[in-house]
Amino acid sequence: MHEHTLAELSRLLNTGKISSTELTRLYLERAERLNPQLNGYINTTPERALAQAKAADLTILHKNHGPLTGIPIAHKDIFCVDGTRTSCGSKMLDNFIAPYNATVVEKLDAAGMVTLGKTNMDEFAMGSSTETSYYGPTTNPWDTSRVPGGSSGGSASVVAARLAPAATGTDTGGSIRQPAALCGITGLKPTYGLVSRYGMIAFASSLDQGGPMSRTAEDAAMLMNAMVGFDPRDSTSLARPKLDYTAHLSDSLAGVKVGIPKQYFTDDLDTDTANKVQEAIKQFEQAGASLHPVDLPNTHLSIPAYYVIAPAEASSNLSRFDGVRFGYRCQNPVDLLDLYTRSRAEGFGREVKRRIMIGTYVLSAGYFDAYYLKAQKIRRLIRDDFQNALKQVDVIMGPTTPKPAFKLNELIDDPVSMYLSDIFTVSVNLAGLPAISIPAGFSGQLPIGLQIIGDYFSEAKLLNIAHQYQLHTDWHKQTPGGFA
Ligand code: GLN
Fold first, then answer.
1. d(CA 273, CA 447)
2. pLDDT tens per residue, range 422-465
3. Bridge partners of 292?
4. Of the residues 152, 175, 343, 427, which is catalytic?
5. Which residue, by CA, sits nearest to atom 5 of ligand 1?
6. Residue ranges per domain, the chain?
7. Residue 109 in 3-state DSSP?
8. Under 8 Å CB-to-CB from 33, ≥6 apart: which residues?
9. 423: which residues sit within 8 A by CB, 6+ positions away?
10. Most buried of the four, 102, 171, 185, 204, by CB within 10 Å?
11. Ramachandran region of residue 412, left (φ > 0), alpha (ψ -120 to 50) or beta?
């Protein structure tokens, strides 16, 4: 039963072959038994889940249900879930019980989905390995001595190991796509502004975007139908006509123009990854797509620009954690300054402090023009590169990550190498574009991801292209040994 996709589970629930309560118990049982090897869930919420499942079963009985009613899902612990701890992977919020639901949670609840629990993540979503979490690292189900990627590594790990049929994630510089690639699942980062950020703890507000993490593109399309929508509580939310993201999954790929940037196939790319990604791209040619070289000349500037802009925004967003209003407060402060400094010194981990210091520095009066303003100009150039390329082609394809999953502790003391894990993903956030990562093969036993980037609001096209590939491949169907 845990091998089914959302689309299949939907049919089984609809025809009464299984109840939501049975399904929920099955996943909770798997989580209890198998999560200790992975630490993908920070915690499960069985009571809430079973209450939701019971309600879903009644809805189905009364034939009042939709396609997602009764299907379980896990939420990244960055999304507020009413009455549930929302830690963002940090000691700072270890004691924070969210008093309301994030819009994404509210929408998926309204669609009848059942929340299984909260998934592990890098602290405040800063990282590419899920090793910076206050709750300890998550492991990769394909090889538990390796990282699942990050920051949505918990979500990727539980979906890959079939401890949840799908999960939510957030992507500021790659945090949906990179862990999806390293764990062999499908992850979609929507166009900036399409999915509400309300109730999603802020890291870098101009880059953060929530999205689905699932086994297949079809499942991601079903989730997008429920997640997308204008939200007056998020000032950057976009009002767009409502789309059915499943409507174009079957469209033919004949005539689709695929751009291949030479900047994505350099010597820094692991050879096996390069070969597998090239093979995947060739399959699109066989399906009727045409391949065209495109130029993204400022790709090499995306990591430096991102690591000015993201920390700048983070330093501002994280100033609210002061020991007074939310979260951790130090013991016995001697005065107000001591309360602030010790609460922050004790509540935040190393990577978060590093970002706050970089961000505060680049925003300071003397350095603002040299760093922050310059980075914003580079951001525009990167966006223009994509706009030029996307005038010539429909989508851009390349690897999601420069290499497969690395070992736990391999990069933790080398922040620059860690940052380079996102070399192919951060530029997409800087431009605000949508992109999907799908399983495209294995290097040994480790999954490899193919990234497909499209123009603004081209999610339906990306999902169509990914779905067509998944009809002809079975990489996405593989289950890691030990979790079958
Ligand atoms: N790895 C990147 C960072 O640490 C991206 C994280 C993310 O997308 N949340 O900032």
1. 9
2. 999 999 999 999 999 999 999 999 999 999 999 999 999 999 99
3. 259
4. 175
5. 173
6. 300-377
7. helix
8. none
9. 268, 299, 302, 303, 402
10. 171
11. alpha
pLDDT of res. 58:
98
Among this protein's residues, is 76 annotated catalytic?
Answer: yes
What's the CA-to-centroid distance between 454 and ligand 1, angstroms?
Answer: 20
Q: Which token pair is 467? A: 């779905």
Task: Determine the distance from the C-alpha atom of residue 37 to the mean position of all C-alpha atoms in its chain, rounded to a whole number.
Answer: 21
**End-to-end CA distance of the chain, in Å?**
11
Going from the C-alpha of 55 to that of each of 51, 60, 234, 353, 482, the distances in angstroms are: 6, 9, 29, 43, 33
Residues sharing a CB contact under 8 Å with residue 192, sequence separation 6 or more, in sequence order:
206, 207, 209, 236, 429, 432, 433
Instruction: Give the tens place of pLDDT for each residue, 77-86.
Output: 999 999 999 9
Report whether pLDDT(326) > 90. Answer: no
Q: Which of 78, 124, 128 to mutate to test the pocket of ligand 1 (most atoms within 8 A of CB)?
A: 128
175 is catalytic: yes
pLDDT in tens, 264-290: 998 889 999 999 999 999 999 999 999
Burial (CB < 10 A; 0-12, 13-18, 19+), residue 347, is buried
